[in-house]
């Protein structure tokens, strides 16, 4: 399904599996479309060139991918625009051509061709390009890459430059999303998108573990919080994974561990449950795993009782695992 926004009198919602292709010279129209797909934002033209933009946008369940070719302009999300934004989401951008900057939480990152960056839609920010540019970006729930609101604050407006070793692995893969809108079969596209988010998560965690100059922080200085999350991620499928076991792996007391998680606004047990549910949700939305029983997916990620899995999943997502699979793969 393709939506031609430029020809539509009323902006259609971006349905799952749909591709929207927009071309306009009206900056107000860009603001309207961006606000519909990515949350409230305002666009302002920059430079002396006549304004123009071409944008492709696609949606796969909770993930939106967009590619923009445009003349110079600035995007702003102010405090007044944030009220309707879902605070569980995050943005990831890869600048393919052009130069600009992203500003958020008192930090400004200069962007050139090949730079990758992240920002938090729940916090005011600005993204600006004085001349023509080409940008690929992803909007997705931050829990899909294992980030909390607290950890997201440590990575916004910090660019990963193209000469970074990790960037050399990640950029070629992500760039294919710009070249293949609507060209990949939906089930394969879902798996490719999961791989892309895994790579984005790797980039995000590298930024968290680096100082302001991009240099790795020594293991001795790494926050215990991140070490705990890494241990949880490595053992998430084990039904015997408990806060006590996580604490023992770090040679600290369970009480100390709970204190580390407290600023996150969650508990260790809740974080384990959320990560398990996210992995289950991901498998349930994968058409290639339709042959697997729902209970088997729950067991794979540490839910050894089908009734408990169904109850916890429904509490988190509002529908049963079976119904979620039906909706996600329809």
Automatic annotation (TrEMBL):
Pfam families cross-referenced by the UniProt entry: AraC_binding_2, HTH_18
Domain of life: Bacteria
PANTHER family membership: ARAC SUBFAMILY, HTH-TYPE TRANSCRIPTIONAL ACTIVATOR RHAS-RELATED
Gene3D superfamilies cross-referenced by the UniProt entry: Homeodomain-like (1.10.10.60)
Protein name: Helix-turn-helix domain-containing protein
Keyword DNA-binding included in the entry's annotation: yes
Organism: Arthrobacter sulfonylureivorans
Residue span, HTH araC/xylS-type domain: 226-327
SUPFAM superfamilies in the cross-refs: Homeodomain-like
Keyword annotations from UniProtKB, A to Z: DNA-binding, Transcription, Transcription regulation
InterPro entries named among the record's database cross-references: AraC-bd_2 (IPR035418), AraC_XylS_family_regulators (IPR050204), Homeodomain-like_sf (IPR009057), HTH_AraC (IPR018060), Tscrpt_reg_AraC-type_HTH (IPR020449)
